[in-house]
Amino acid sequence: VSTQSTGICKKQGIQLTSSKKWKENVVRSLLYGFAGNVAHRQPDGSYVSVGNRQQGKIHPSSVLSGNQSEASKVENDVIVFNEMVVTTATYLRTCSVMDKSWLQQQQGEGSNVEGGVVEG
Among 15, 18, 37, which residue's Cα sits nearest to residue 27? Predict the structure, then answer.
């Protein structure tokens, strides 16, 4: 995502500036674009999306899958995903870890995420 965004900005002549919070800014942008694709981790390790309340697992090809993943180390256990793939199982692909407070902030700004109530 970062490489693509950088390339687009350069082609459009947009000046790039550095930010100490660039990862946070990218994930927040994904949250605004994919607000219905937020999912909360369940005790069994699966995730339930806030948009359609469907349960799924992080796709095995993701760097976030497995026991030592970034997702298992974060306190909030909330992800934003790009797509839900249904085969013999339901998988969430192209996932990013996010802070639960970002979803709460977006809801405070009038987000229309159906069923997107953050539960503690």
Answer: 37
pLDDT, tens digit, 9 for 90 and up, residues 94-109: 888 888 888 777 765 5
Flag whether the pTM goes above 0.70.
no
Question: b/e for 9-19, b at 16 or more Cβ within 10 A?
Answer: eeeeeeeeeee
CB under 8 Å to 93, separation ≥6 — which residues?
59, 61, 62, 81, 82, 83, 84, 85
The bridge status of strand 55-58 relative to strand 90-98 is parallel
Q: Say whether 8 sits in a helix, a strand or coil.
A: helix
3 state DSSP class of 80:
strand
- Is 71 within 8 Å of 98 (Cβ atoms)? no
pLDDT in tens, 73-86: 555 488 889 899 99
